[in-house]
Amino acid sequence: MTDAEVVGRRWVLGALALYAGLVGLVLLLPVSYGAVVNALADALRSLFGLDAFGSGWIEFTANIVMFIPLGFLFTLLVRRHWLGVVVALAASVAAELAQLLIPSREPSLRDVLANTVGAGLGAVLAWMLVLRRRRACRRAGSVNGSSGVA
Questions:
Q1: What is the largest CA-CA distance in the chain?
Q2: From CA 113, how far away is CA 89, in angstroms rounded?
Q3: What is the DSSP letter of 1?
Q4: Would you say 97 and 108 are in contact if contact means Cβ atoms under 8 Å apart?
Q5: What tens digit of pLDDT does each residue of 98-144 get?
Q6: Quick check: 74 and 115 in contact, CB under 8 A?
Q7: Scanning 6, 61, 69, 98, which has the fewest C-beta atoms within 10 Å of its C-beta?
Q8: Backbone angles phi, psi at 30, to 5 degrees
Q9: SS3 100
């Protein structure tokens, strides 16, 4: 492993740890985010006339966005695109089960779906980056190999 790869892995591990802490707080604090979601839905309705875009869709979209970094970072870390999605699914199920014990929280299978979709999107983005880097390295290797430079 090159020095750049070691630094990159450390960066990804640090970002993953920070992300896990923040998401853990959001998912497990005994706080209901309903007021925030409803205020955002009201703002979208009044500013843009998006009457069909209710608070349920905002929460669903927020859950997708919240889990994109997990799929992205985990895929960069382990170089297995499917594993980030599996980890996100397991983490999402665990968080929803934990929310059963928190009085002000409402666990939902819809949240599990949204979280898994978000992680899947992140994994796809990271995998595209991994494949792009691999192609660039192969091209650089073939150029160096054809010119006699090792």
A1: 68
A2: 8
A3: -
A4: no
A5: 888 877 777 789 989 999 999 999 999 998 988 888 888 888 876 66
A6: no
A7: 6
A8: -80, 55
A9: coil
